[in-house]
Amino acid sequence: MPTYEFICKNCGNRFSVFTTVAGRDKVQCENCQSRDLQQVFSGLTFFKSGSRGGGSTGSSGCSRGSCSGCPGC
Ligand SMILES: [Zn+2]
Q1: Gap from CA of 28 to ligand 1 centroid (Å)
Q2: How far is the CA of 9 from the centre of ligand 1 (A)?
Q3: What is the pLDDT of residue 35?
Q4: CA distances to 10, 23, 36, 56, 59 from 32, in Å
Q5: What does the alpha-carbon distance between residue 32 and residue 16 come to, in Å, rounded to a whole number?
Q6: Residue 15 — φ and ψ, nearest 5°?
Q7: How high is the pLDDT of residue 65?
Q8: Residue 10 and which of 25, 39, 43, 68 are 20 to 30 A apart at CA?
Q9: Which residues surround ligand 1, an ion (CB under 5 A)?
Q10: How far is the CA of 47 from the centre of ligand 1 (A)?
Q11: How far, in Å, from the CA of 64 to the mean position of ligand 1?
Q12: Are 55 and 70 in contact (CB under 8 A)?
């Protein structure tokens, strides 16, 4: 199960939970039980590791992973 990280907009509590994609909508703040949460995306490092560097042509704009124009795909 993936870990999702949230920041509570009500009390500012930051926490991470193990849940499914479906259960993500039912997550409550573990401090105040508020459901007014903002999800924190920490996938930037994952994003970088997924692309192969070394290409002289800037391929930073490609985020689809299936194009034929950049060496990173
Ligand atoms: Zn809270």
Answers
A1: 8
A2: 7
A3: 96
A4: 8, 18, 10, 50, 43
A5: 15
A6: -155, 165
A7: 67
A8: 43
A9: 8, 10-11, 13, 29, 31-32, 34
A10: 29
A11: 35
A12: yes
pTM, two decimal places: 0.55
Average pLDDT over residues 62-72: 67
- Res 34: pLDDT: 97
Query: Which domains occur in the chain, in start order?
Result: 3-48 (2.20.28)
Ligand 1 centre from 14 Cα, in Å? 8
24: which 2 tokens? 């993500």
Give 11-46 pLDDT, tens digit per residue.
999 999 998 988 988 999 999 999 999 999 865 544
